[in-house]
Amino acid sequence: MDVLVLGSSYAGLATVHKLRKFLKDINITIISKSRIVRENTIFPLLLTNDIYIKDTEFDAKNVVESKGVNFIEGEVLEIYPNSREVKTNKGIYDYDYLFLALGGGYEENFRKIPGNEYAVMHHTLEGFLRLKDLLYKSEGNIFVGNAKSSPIEGPSYQVALISEYILRRRGVKSKVYLSTQSPKGIFGNIPNEEVISKANSYFKKRGIEVLAGKTVKEIKKDRVVLSDGTEIEAEVKSILPALSAPETVKRSELVDDSGFVNVSLPSFRKDERIFGLGDLAKTPLPRTARNAMISAENAVSTLLKDLRGVSLPMYGLGVLCVMEGGDDGGIFRMEKGKAFLEFDRHFITIKKMYSRMLVRSGFDMPFHGAPHI
Ligand SMILES: Cc1cc2nc3c(=O)[nH]c(=O)nc-3n(C[C@H](O)[C@H](O)[C@H](O)COP(=O)(O)OP(=O)(O)OC[C@H]3O[C@@H](n4cnc5c(N)ncnc54)[C@H](O)[C@@H]3O)c2cc1C
């Protein structure tokens, strides 16, 4: 039996580790653009020199080949579900089961924002390095925000807090603006007024001006144009775009009108042979690394039940976000509708430790602190 996994990050590698743990006798191949994988949730700490690039990366080819899994460093070009084939720049691969774990099309969606050349995207390593350079040079205002329908705001909250910290340390008196999609501000889409109020008070105390219920429409050289027409003067503009599955997946007709792969939950199954995982799957929750790993857990458990009749626990999706905020930190957790938010700088240490374990294990970290369902 041939299992093909596309993408070697949180979702793809978690899939491979669990498949190999339970199925010793199948052929597993993982295809990804680069054998060097980065733990991107820790990137905000690059801005404050709390970590170095080398702390974030590992060689996925070495990790999986030590378990008897084939790693192909190549680009996925086309997916043909009818003939069960995947075309790459290294050849054509066929499969019995396919796990799609190619992430979200961040870069292609960022390029669609008018004036994106005047902004950075706080998602890629390159984006964070450019942002770092600007934050230590700039004397002007900083704007951080998301385009409409962006599925994750946590990184923007962190970038705003860290920007405030860097300006404060540099003695620069400019403003930090943070736009949020919800009119209620920070964590405004969470059904818990206490959390929303606590979060907004905290950002206010840190001197960050929250522009609630506004998204980024256009970027100009010295300003950002928001959805309601407001223009904010800013020298540094750091943005997260709207999201969809990458174009390669869209072309395969596996996505619906939402732009994502419409899977059944909690199995993340698209159809009998295909699972859609992580950032490219359609779910009602933010696209996070934790949910990407949980999607892999649930998908592999579903396949194991089909193939071997083994029943393993399925996990519920939720939110667990540790925020890095310069000289302070925070944790936000939401499971089964219950939400919790606390601020304390020691949470940053916990995040660094967890990140270290992710990197050291090559994303083989099957504990997600998530409830069984
Ligand atoms: C700054 C920042 C902070 C974050 N903080 C948190 C946090 O605290 N907690 C949390 O849970 N989440 C956090 N996230 C979100 C999290 O990083 C993403 O949800 C996660 O990366 C999604 O994992 P994935 O496996 O679905 O996709 P990705 O990590 O995007 O991986 C996709 C993989 O597919 C490969 N690929 C893509 N296209 C092709 C192709 N055509 N051919 C071959 N290979 C391809 C890529 O190279 C990559 O290896 C954060 C994100 C950012 C940017």
Tell me what the structure shows.
- Helices cover 30% and strands 25% of the residues.
- It is of the alpha/beta class.
- The chain has two domains: 2-105 and 244-314, FAD/NAD(P)-binding domain (3-Layer(bba) Sandwich), CATH 3.50.50; 107-242, FAD/NAD(P)-binding domain, CATH 3.50.50.
- The strands form six sheets. The chain has a five-stranded parallel beta sheet. It has a five-stranded parallel beta sheet with strand order 10-17-11-12-13.
- Strand 19 (319-324) and strand 20 form a beta hairpin.
- The structure holds flavin-adenine dinucleotide.
- Flavin-adenine dinucleotide is lined by residues 7-12, 31-34, 40-41, 43-44, 75-76, 101-103, 122-123, 152, 154-155, 246, 248, 278-279, 287-290, 292, 321-322.
- Residues 1-293 form the FAD/NAD(P)-binding domain.
- This is Pyridine nucleotide-disulfide oxidoreductase.
- GO terms for molecular function: oxidoreductase activity.
- InterPro entries: FAD/NAD-bd_sf (IPR036188), FAD/NAD-binding_dom (IPR023753), SQRD (IPR052541).
Poorly predicted tracts of residues: none
Strand line-up in the sheet with most strands: 5-2-1-9-18
Number of E-type strands: 21
Tally the structural domains.
Answer: 2
Structural class based on helices, strands and sheet pairing: alpha/beta
Indicate the overall shape.
Answer: globular
Radius of gyration: 21 Å
Bound molecules: flavin-adenine dinucleotide
Major sheet: size, sense and barrel closure?
A: 5 strands, parallel
Instruction: Give the averaged pLDDT, no decimals.
Output: 96
Percentage of helical residues? 25-40%
